[in-house]
Design a protein that fits this description.
The chain has 2 domains: about 5-95 and about 170-270, Rossmann fold (3-Layer(aba) Sandwich), CATH 3.40.50.300; about 100-170. The protein has 8 helices and 12 strands. The protein has helices at about 65-70, 110-115, 115-120, 125-130, 155-165, 185-200, 210-220, 250-265; strands at about 5, 15, 20-30, 35-45, 50-55, 80-85, 85, 95-100, 170-175, 205-210, 220-225, 230-235. The strands form 3 sheets. A 6-stranded mixed sheet has the order 8-9-10-5-11-12, with helices on both faces. A 4-stranded antiparallel sheet has the order 4-3-6-7, with helices on one face. β11 (about 220-225) and β12 (about 230-235) form a beta hairpin. The longest helix has 18 residues, at about 185-200. About 35% of the residues are buried. The structure holds adenosine-5'-diphosphate (ADP) and magnesium ion. Magnesium ion (MG) binds near residues 63, 64, 100 and 176.
Length: about 270
Amino acid sequence: MATAAGRCGCGIVTQPVKEAIAVRGMSKGFRERSGWVEALREVSIAAAGGEFVTIIGPSGCGKSTLFNIISGVIAPDEGEVLIQGQDARGRVGLAGYMPQKDLLLPWRTVLDNVVLGMEVSGMKAAAAREQARPMLGEFGLAGFEGAYPAALSGGMRQRAALLRTVLFHRDILLLDEPFGALDALTRRAMHEWLLGLWGRLGKTILFVTHDVEEAVLLSDRVYVMSARPGRIIGELAIPLPRPRHAEIALGGEFVELKRLLLGMLRGEAAA
Ligand code: ADP
Ligand code: MG
């Protein structure tokens, strides 16, 4: 965690470490046909630079709404959102965002899909392609630059969407259930791959899932959300050593962390 300004043992006043992401007292409601729906209530979360932080909560608890607010796509009713110390309310582009329904454009090739973010931010298409091409291999897309999304497997489509987000070149990535639609085997392969990528890129990742095992395997820290209106009802540090591989899920400490998280999700942490 980022620490407040303070004095170290040698007597030198240390500078405050800026949190990569800080959300404080954030609330959001929507006017729906059935009336007013309270989606998020006084949510406060933070992520330090380079940290892998996961939000877990039941379907409909406001996870995607939270990400839409942090990314600046929608504004909160109340509360603060800071990205690297900057007010991020209503400001898109401070973080790389992969929304839950991040569809690739079916009429664009893989290469033209992954450069979309760069083109939108003003880069010439040819230069953007030059930059993207060498990264296709690392994302398991070598040889597919001219393929259309329909020809790709589910895992490849998700990796293409992730590459598009990474090529936006932000220090912070917001990933909303990126593996939610994948089968169990592909998902497992993607976990190892994402951890390797995170280790190499050194980015801060804020990740959404409703899968307890995925949360424990990937994260440094997990926030637990209640059912709607979404509130933070618990926080759990995951002190498992890295690098982590799938086999770690068989260990006693992993199973205990999973058990703790499940208990928190059932509301035990609210007590
Ligand atoms: P989650 O991602 O946790 O499944 P969401 O953030 O998608 O949850 O949704 C939380 C609640 O907010 C739901 O009840 C949903 O219907 C409502 N909601 C989300 N976005 C909108 C919107 N743009 N307009 C009206 N209601 C919305
Ligand atoms: Mg969602």
